[in-house]
């Protein structure tokens, strides 16, 4: 073996260089969350500044009235420091520091669960991106189909024959001349990238790609002997198959007969290089127009039955042949056409239907013949009556304006090169603002996998380069697993929405309570320690509880969010505002009339009232957390006991709340409550649930 290049100069190196060029784009959710966090932070800062200004202005007014505005004491400074502490607490409550935690928790949880569903996530953010996907560009072979190929039909000497395991070789070859059968065997066994070996227990094993395996199996079916055929001639030159030429060729030196070239590959490409054909008696006759039309019709007939078609041809080379020369590619004699069946995977049709109902467009991008691609796309439910199927060379010739019209309707691209796939993905992302998922298995798919928002590489048939540039590896090479990944992605998105809804409700209430109370009474009912505990409930524990909700089948019945959808939807705003108003009314009522209602008097009455307000506020959050399990459905208890994390977090919150109130009085500024006061606090919190259910009945737009 002669090594010509190493490192970055090899094809692998060049490919890896193109992959490392593109920077890491932010995922659609990251972009939206950055916006949400910034807005919440700004609102908190605004409220803090206003609160501080109002309190300081009150102090100035008091000093002005007393006429002591020029003399300032240490007490005044301490008062201003207290005001500043209130302002800082408002900012602390407002800033959603639990958001990154919720996102990471949700992604990590999804990633772990997806591993059980045969999907290995390489980049954490990919879990969520798949939930926003609006289009999937899928390979055909091995993803939509099983990649277990067998020759089921063949056209030899102008006769179309069925090939089946039950059929006998003698019956198949009965009306085909021996010389032609011999030529088919020679072509199949010499012009191959596969091999036939004997295992230790004496069984025949065929090695090679699924296509090569199918053709070699056909050669054995014809009664050929692989070893004998290989030894009967000498291999002079091999041109391996590649996706650009779509053919493979060899030159053989036959003892006493000179040189012979054999070629096999994409049917229309090989047929174009033929000018002769073997007739029914095995003689070489010129390929006239009627014969050519008959062969083209046969190829179309095979393709319309969802068969991959390959042509096999040979050419006698006159004179000598030097291995340095390229293999000639014209003047061939057609030996035959084979139709290879690659059955559609079970469950693919249902998965495509789920994608369609979920608003995800599935497009097939394949190197196969257009008729085969169309037949399989129809069988899978990808190609519809108003959809367009196009060939790669034709797609390449289209102008930007034509592509603008074509791409939205494009459902199948056949005979495509890796760069066609890359172009399609680039257009879908940049021009149409789609969130694109791409499947690929070959090294040449790497640019498209890298260009896409989410690259899905095949775990079994995929090459190392494809896996390296993918975000998720589909371990069982099955399209149905891709749908599961999309479902988990949506679950992540919805879980983070639930968490943000829950957190914003707490933020809004805590902000308004402290702000209005500070402005009207000059002090805040919730102390810094209490606010930090509330902050912990809604940030850390809330993230744990709501970020680990498993997905439901309903998620795949709604349309994808895509790149442009609002993260905080109208439904969320409705729930946030409704719940916030209820909680604010409860707390304000307790603050103004609590002493009278609970008959509080004496020196600890203010402390008891503030403890009651704090306790009621926390229980409002506990029950609101249960209501947040579903943003639109009234029954929020469905499956609650299946989520151990949620039940655990809720139990810990309640136990720790009892501990804070009953035993941490001096630290948390609380006072032990009577059982009637506990009952009242829990009841006020629980009332939030029927209120939340009633709010969900108010119709709002989905966005």
Give a quick set of tags describing it.
single chain, 703 residues, alpha/beta, 9-stranded mixed sheet, 26 helices, 19 strands, 15% strand
Description:
The protein is of the alpha/beta class and 703 residues long. The chain is 52% helix and 15% strand. Strands 3, 4, 7, 8, 9, 10, 11, 12 and 13 form a nine-stranded mixed β-sheet that branches.
- Our Rg estimate from Cα atoms comes to 36 Å
Residue share in helices?
40-55%
Largest sheet: 9 strands, mixed
Determine the number of helices (DSSP H or I, runs of at least 4 residues).
Answer: 26
CA-CA gap between termini: 62 Å
- Global structural class: alpha/beta
The low-confidence parts are: none
Cα shape = elongated
- How many β strands by DSSP? 19
Mean pLDDT: 83
Content of β-strand = 5-15%
Topology:
Elements lengths: L10 H11 L6 H39 L7 H21 L3 H19 L2 E3 L4 H6 L3 E4 L11 E7 L2 E4 L6 H5 L4 H13 L4 E4 L5 E4 L2 H12 L4 H6 L2 E6 L7 E8 L3 E9 H6 L1 E5 L5 E3 L2 H16 L2 E11 L14 E10 L6 H10 L3 E5 L4 H11 L7 E4 H6 L2 H7 L3 E5 L3 H13 L5 E5 L5 H6 L2 E5 L5 H5 L3 E3 L4 H43 L6 H19 L23 H28 L7 H23 L16 H20 L1 H4 L6 H12 L1 H8 L8
Parallel strand pairs: 2-14, 2-17, 10-13, 14-16, 15-16, 17-18, 18-19
Antiparallel strand pairs: 1-19, 3-4, 3-13, 5-6, 7-8, 8-9, 9-12, 10-11, 12-13
Helix pairs in contact: 2-3, 2-19, 3-19, 3-20, 4-19, 4-20, 7-8, 11-13, 19-20, 19-21, 20-22, 20-23, 21-22, 21-26, 22-23, 22-25, 22-26
Protein name: Calcium-transporting ATPase
Keywords: ATP-binding, Calcium, Calcium transport, Calmodulin-binding, Ion transport, Magnesium, Membrane, Metal-binding, Nucleotide-binding, Translocase, Transmembrane, Transmembrane helix, Transport
Pfam families: Cation_ATPase, Cation_ATPase_C
